[in-house]
Amino acid sequence: MKNEPEIKPPDTHLTLRRFDTGSKQERHQFCFYCNIFLLCCFAFLCARLWYLQIYKGKQFKELSEKNSIKYVRLQSYRGNILDCSGRLIAGVEPSFNIGVVLKDVKDVEGLLMELSKLLDEPATNIRMKLVAAKDQPSYLPVIVKRDASWEEVSRVEARLYRLPGVVVDVAPARQYPYGTVAPHLLGYLGEVSLEQLKSGNFPHAVPGDLVGKSGIELRFERELAGNSGYRMIEVDAKGRMIKVLKTRKPLPGKDLQLSINLDLQLAAEEALSGKSGALVALDPRDGKLLAMASSPKFDPRIFARGVTQMEWKQLNDPLLTPLVNKAIQGQYAPGSTFKIIMAAGGLQEKVINPYSHFFCNGSLKLGRRRFRCWKKGGHGQTDLYKGLVQSCDVYFYNVGLKLGMDRISKYAFGFGLGKKTGIDLPNEKSGFVPTRAWKRRRFNEPWQKGETLNYSIGQGFLLVTPLQLARMMAAVGNGGKLFRPEYILSEPPDLQAKVPVNSRLLTVIKKDLIGVTEDKHGTARSCYIPGIHIAGKTGTAQVIKQAKRRESEKMAWKYQDHALFVALAPADNPQIAVAVIIEHGGHGGSAAAPVARAVIERWLQLRSPKPATILQRKL
Q1: For the chain, which has fewer Cβ within 10 Å, the N-terminal or C-terminal residue?
Q2: H/E element holding 16?
Q3: For residue 173, is pLDDT > 90?
């Protein structure tokens, strides 16, 4: 076929050249992008390494160390409490606490069952302790057994390898070499509560610590507690210690030396044993506290280990009130001990003199009502000496009518009643001194003359604490000075005020009060001690009204009168003032005076030679 076109083969050289050219460009582009990607990866790795090793290096180092290093808190030893001569009243001794660090526990239920067997403690009790501590940091141990026995510690220590999270710590515990002395004054320790921690008043404490809950332990908590330390230890994967890396020793708390005399305190507590009441002994010369006892007392050690339901019920007995410090919190009608203030006010206002006589036939009639004297047949013609020595109510009814309600209150306040004494202890009560304005405010009624008669013999609305009575008696002995009661030996005397009575008149009253213990008709002959003059005054405070008292010859214990007694010794140079109340004890002379005598006798035994100056009554 002549006309067919000639078919030429393709130009393969040109095609291959074009292809080769395109492949090189693509390869270059591909390599470029790969290099960029690798560079970015390398930059990212470098940045990450810089972030982890440099920027976050310190933090991750600490986290790494925490996996193998533990900090163990070392609790400080609490300060000692000493008596005036340096004898130990409350000290410390080592004890063992068994705790659980929750963050290290994987099987809580299994651990509970194991600890229950080892500690012979119901698993529910241990669970309750763990639940109660749910808000505290998980790295802090929860104390499940405080003051554990050596046998319990041995059983736990031998099995620590299969008890992850369980720790055994040595912690200081309070010890009382002379038994539970002055628990109301010293106070007690208990586990710090979350409320206390949140209050900011216990910055040194952590959950599980024992802190002061009352008395001196609470008032001087920061000084007594000291500062805790720590120990940094290296542990293996099972929490076992390998070595100690660092230790900061704890600083022990400061010691407190009290003005309390241990011998007098023990004598007071022994004399009050089996009774409900209180005793306070002061040094009239400077207001230092020599003894303070409240009965019944309690064992402060039970609060550290945990109080059982039965123990708590006994501690909250509404009649005996063992937890109440009756020396500063008990408020009672002063009864006839108030006649001392009545005598002082009457002499100062010159409504009576030492020779003023009033006739007592057993009662005083005011309007249509008769106000009786404690002596049914009466005391006959009675002067100040006889009125104080035999505690004649009719005599002081007359003094009260002459003074009037307003001046009686003036002298009650003047002797420190109706307000706190200022002793540095928590929860002191102020007592109560009535006034006309208060009566109008409280009852919307005017003051009545009949109320003045009750007021004159320490009954009615008037309330005092035993500490106030002791300070009142101290003021009689020292010429009228009202010191703030102080129990720290090193503290200087703090003179708060002077009573509004001439010191010469107080001397007259003091001499008359000797007859209360020495006169054959005195109401406190049971406090008489041969060779020493004691100035005293008895009191009987009614708990229920006279009309109800006649309904039954024998009343239940809780309705019987309170017995009171105040005393100074030696009367010529007073060095000890004592106030005693025996709740529902009956008569002051038979129930309260012997308690005061026991303390004064012990005070005399501690001094040589015994003071024995004879003080003659001179008017």
Answers
A1: N
A2: helix 12-50
A3: no
φ/ψ of 385, rounded to 5, equals -60, -50
To which H or E segment does residue 4 belong? none
Task: Outline which parts of the chain fall under CATH 3.90.1310.10.
Answer: 69-95+168-257
| Residue of higher predicted confidence among 616 and 374 | 374
Q: Tell me, what amino acid is at 434?
A: P
Query: Is there a contact between 299 and 323 (Cβ–Cβ < 8 Å)?
Result: no
Cα–Cα distance measured from residue 201 to residue 209, given in angstroms and rounded to the nearest whole number: 14
3-state secondary structure of 170: strand
319 CB neighbour count, 10 Å cutoff: 9
Locate 103 and state its tokens: 């963050």
Cβ atoms of 84 and 489 closer than 8 Å: yes
Contact 496, 506 (CB under 8 A): no
User: Residue 459, CB half-sphere, CA atoms under 13 Å: how many?
Assistant: 21
Per-residue pLDDT tens for 532-591?
999 999 999 888 765 555 544 567 888 899 999 999 999 999 999 999 999 999 899 999
Which residue has tokens 């009686």? 408
Query: Which residue is listed with tokens 């994987």?
Result: 106
Nearest to 431 by CA among 323, 578, 579: 579
| CA–CA gap between residue 499 and residue 481 (Å, rounded) | 7
* Structure token pair of residue 518: 């020495």
What pairs with residue 74 in β-bridges? 229
Give Cα 351 distance to the centre of its chain: 45
Q: What is the pLDDT of residues 412-457, one digit of tens each?
A: 999 999 999 999 999 999 999 999 999 999 999 999 999 999 999 9
* 391 Rama sector, left if φ>0, alpha if ψ -120 to 50, beta otherwise: left
Neighbours of 459 (CB within 10 A): 21
Residues 614 and 619: their CA atoms lie apart, in Å, by: 16
Write out the residue limits of the CATH 3.40.710.10 domain(s) in the chain: 262-297+321-605
Euclidean distance between CA atoms 122 and 113, whole angstroms? 9
Q: Which residue has the tokens 């293996």?
A: 236
- The string of DSSP letters for 279-346 reads EEEE-TTT-BEEEEEEES---TTHHHH---HHHHHHHT-TTT-TTS-HHHH--B--GGGGHHHHHHHH
Number of alpha carbons in the 13 Å side-chain half-sphere of residue 510: 27
What dotted CATH number matches 262-297+321-605?
3.40.710.10
259, 81 contact by CB (below 8 A): no
Q: Residues 455, 400: contact at Cβ < 8 Å?
A: yes
DSSP string covering 507-561: HHHHHHHHHHHHSTT-TTGGG-BTTB--EEEEEEE-SS-HHHHTT-SS--GGGSP
Range with lowest mean pLDDT among 141-155, 206-220, 507-521, 544-558:
544-558
Kindly report the number of other CB atoms within 10 A of residue 183's CB atom: 25
